[in-house]
Design goal:
Strand content: 15-25%
Number of strands: 9
Strand order of the largest sheet: 5-6-7-8-9
Structural class: alpha+beta
Order of helices and strands: HHEEHHHHEEEHEEEHE
Distance between the termini: 41 Å
Shape: flat
Length: 285
């Protein structure tokens, strides 16, 4: 089906200008919604996203996964929108690479580029070369999960980081699928040997694990993944399945650590008890 998206965008802009900030559920109320899932966009949602990415709208906050949009001039101060004060390309590359490295600790040029997705690997490589020549970057070898070494970049003084002298806590933690440690799937696979993807966009019959599966971190190792959901109408956090990673023994100690983590999650989930499907502990894939 074809839509007049120019008219759609103008209608959405007019609504935001008249009514104030909106979410995707506030626009296009007379448009049919797909039953394919929350990621299926109706035309006005598409218009909202385009207007945001092109600068006419800005995001003022979120309600769960749902963004709230308003006119950019009502969100971003005039001084920051003045083109005369906009950073040039070199300044943008410098800021992006510097901030990505600060968050990652160490990284390849490709990982710096992938962090923001709007600078190229060539630009990141050029930045790394210039920073290294100026003495503001060192090349180090990072050991991967398979024992191989791969060169990466880090700031001078990285070896004095106190974190290198402390063992990570043994607590088992449930991670969000969007946790920063997993954001770069290739990096996570290299460093942790953990091959992970979120399967909400995968047709049910083709899913390897489940709709929304949480990785499990214990110490410095990703030890498994769990399919679970909070059923607030039943006041229960229900565990459907858990898959230990290959080579991970799921004994009494790890089970106790997992159950303790579930108890910590109950207030966050808004429920008071845990339940398990029969046969929930699965054989690793």
């Amino acid at each position: 089906q074809r839509h007049d998206f120019e008219t759609q965008m103008q209608n959405v802009l007019a609504q935001v200008r008249a009514e104030g900030s909106v979410t995707s559920s506030d626009v296009g109320r007379d448009e049919p919604r797909s039953s394919g899932g929350w990621w299926q966009w109706h035309p006005s949602k598409t218009a909202l996203e385009y207007l945001w990415r092109s600068g006419a709208l800005a995001v003022t906050g979120r309600e769960g996964f749902r963004k709230r949009y308003d006119l950019t001039e009502r969100v971003v101060p005039d001084a920051l929108r003045d083109p005369a004060h906009a950073p040039d390309i070199e300044q943008t590359i410098d800021w992006c690479c510097d901030q990505a490295l600060a968050r990652l600790g160490f990284a390849t040029a490709g990982e710096l580029a992938a962090f923001w997705a709007h600078i190229s690997p060539a630009e990141a490589r050029g930045w790394c070369a210039a920073e290294q020549a100026a003495g503001r970057l060192e090349e180090i070898d990072v050991e991967a999960a398979d024992g191989s070494l791969r060169p990466a970049f880090a700031r001078p003084g990285w070896a004095d980081d106190p974190a290198l002298t402390h063992e990570p806590p043994k607590r088992l933690r449930v991670l969000s699928p969007f946790d920063p440690a997993l954001r770069d799937r290739k990096r996570a696979a290299r460093l942790f040997g953990f091959d992970y993807r979120i399967e909400v966009f995968v047709p049910e019959a083709q899913r390897e694990y489940g709709y929304y599966v949480f990785p499990l971190l214990q110490g410095d190792r990703l030890v498994g993944r769990v399919d679970m959901k909070a059923h607030r109408d039943l006041d229960v956090l229900h565990v459907t399945a858990l898959w230990p990673e290959r080579g991970v023994r799921w004994g009494k100690g790890r089970q106790a650590a997992f159950e303790a983590e579930l108890q910590r999650l109950l207030p966050l989930a808004g429920v008071r008890r845990v339940s398990f499907t029969d046969g929930w502990l699965r054989v690793p894939h």
